[in-house]
Design brief:
Layout: E1 8-9, E2 12-17, E3 25-31, E4 42-45, E5 52-54, E6 58-59, E7 63-69, E8 76-82
Antiparallel strand pairs: 1-6, 2-5, 2-8, 3-4, 3-7
């Protein structure tokens, strides 16, 4: 998300997709410097009904990287983020 030079916050990010039957997580990392450095991954539990993370900090320009760990494939329909 980019819109001018003002700081924005990202109170929520999440995904819409299949609910896993076995332990599975989706790592979410953020880079606020054009992909040079990435934050420590926070994990979304893909077995839960609500697949979201809250309180994701503030930024001016942000890149998001998703990584999946699990033995089974994961199908995602959408990545959603609330930006204020």
């Amino acid at each position: 998300p980019q819109d001018g030079n003002e700081r924005k916050t990202m109170p929520m990010v999440g995904v819409i997709g299949d609910t896993a039957r076995a332990a599975s997580s989706l790592g979410v990392e953020f880079s606020d410097d054009d992909g040079q450095n990435w934050s420590t991954a926070r994990n979304i539990d893909m077995t839960s009904d609500k697949k979201a993370l809250y309180r994701n900090g503030s930024f001016r320009n942000r890149h998001v990287r998703l990584t999946h760990t699990g033995n089974l494939d994961v199908r995602l329909e959408k990545f959603v983020a609330r930006v204020e």
